[in-house]
Amino acid sequence: MTEKAHDKELDAVKGDIARLREELAGIADGVKESAGLHAKRSRASAQQGGAAHGEEGPGVWEDLLHKFDSSRVQGEKVVRGLAAEVEQQPLVSIMAAFGLGYIIAKLWYQGARGATNEDTNDAP
Q1: Whether pTM exceeds 0.70
Q2: What are the extents of the domains in the chain?
Q3: Quick one: pLDDT band at residue 51, thresholds 50, 70, 90?
């Protein structure tokens, strides 16, 4: 291709990228607007004394956030416990990690080898 053709293609790609940026900005604005409307509805519903039949109330979102926070805290505790265990017994931890990695690699490559052997056995 000539240099002019490359320049035209590059300009076309630049134009496509600019349009994609505009579309993504529009999507982001739409999501923000939707979230704002949902928050307003939740506040209005809470002020009216609860959700109407068939609607989600703000309590559902608060419960979901509470569960998420408690799961995050529990996960952090597990990670801290594992870190403390590794600090107390580093050699055992290294050996366990190596052994687990070895087993996973063996299973992975054995499965890949089995798939290639099946392909070669199917050939006439």
Answers
A1: no
A2: 1-54
A3: very low
